[in-house]
Amino acid sequence: MSFIAEGVLLGLTLTIMIGPIFIALTQTGIEHGLRAGLSVGSGIWFSDILVISLAYYFIHNISGRISEPGFAQWSGLAGGLILMGFGIAAFFKDHRGEEKTPGFDARSYREYFLKGFLVNFVNPFTFFFWTSVMTTYVVTRKSGGLEVLLVFGSILVTIICTDSLKVALAKSIRSKLEKHHIKYLGKIAGLLLIGFGISLIVRTSFL
What we know:
- This protein has 207 residues and is mostly helical.
- It is 83% helix and 0% strand.
- It has one domain (2-205).
- The chain has helices at 2-15, 20-32, 34-57, 59-67, 71-92, 106-121, 124-140, 145-174, 179-205.
């Protein structure tokens, strides 16, 4: 039971952090509605599961790679540039808003899913966080497979629930916003993503 509680606490710690993931979720939810926001969230959650799986099965290799000189700098540069690219696109986009959620097809889901996946996966701190937590439980605390599953399962369930709540709240806010409000929020979100990208490049350059 303590492993589940620890996982929920870690998940809540992650969800209250305001970063590019929070911006991507809320911006998409406000501008395009619930399904679009959840599609972005699905990409984020899938990338988390992928990184967790890699960390579990190849923890020693991953730990060695992320400690190599230059890895953090290059991954930070790539991730920062991609975040800045999303930010620039969001800033210059014509945020007119929609009276109704636009029609969805397979291509729409793929595009939003890919956006969420990239925003999370290209951030080196995603790897640092999951690898450090995995190292704590597998290497330091010698936790077994079931215990690791309980911890990381609890973290993921907490993240999925809170991210879905963020998108739902963003959708409810959307119905109360005028078109010019959505335009300004879109530009603010774009500037924040650019800022996060620049911050990521600067921080990893000095690691």
